[in-house]
Amino acid sequence: MTLPVPTPGLVIRYAYLWRNEFDSGSEDGRKYRPAVVVNAVVTGADGRTRVVVSPITHRNPGPERGLLIPPAVKAHLGLDDDRSWIVTDEVNVFVWPGVDLAALPGRPGRYAYGKIPAKLFLELRNRLLSSNPPPAAVPRT
C-alpha cells in the first residue's frame, strides 16, 4: 500500500463529516465520498501533515456554496456521470492520512482518483479564501 502525497487539487476517497452532523455530536462521516485536498501543511516538531478537504456531492448546494464539476473532469477522475459539486462553505481538517481515508472501490491500495485541473482548483481556492463568513472547519481526530 502506497499512500499518495496530499497535494492541493488531489481528489481522495474520504469519510467526510458534514458540519451539521458534527454540530449534532457525530464524530464519524456517514459515507465515503470524493473530497478535494485544498491544503496540506507540515506542522509541529513531529512533522505531521494537516490536511484540509472540501467534499464533493451530488446534491446541488447552490451557486454561493458550491462549484459545478465539468463532465470532462468527472470522466478524467473516473467518477460517475451524475452532476456533482465541490462544496465551498465547509471543510474538514485532519492529520494525514487519518482513519477516514479509504481505498477506491474495486481498487485496493489506491486512495486517490487524480487531480482536478489547475483552473478549477484556483476557482475553489479563491472561493474559499474570499468567503464571508469563512468556510466552517470541522476538526477530525
From TrEMBL:
Protein name: Growth inhibitor PemK
Source species of the chain: Rhodospirillum centenum (strain ATCC 51521 / SW)
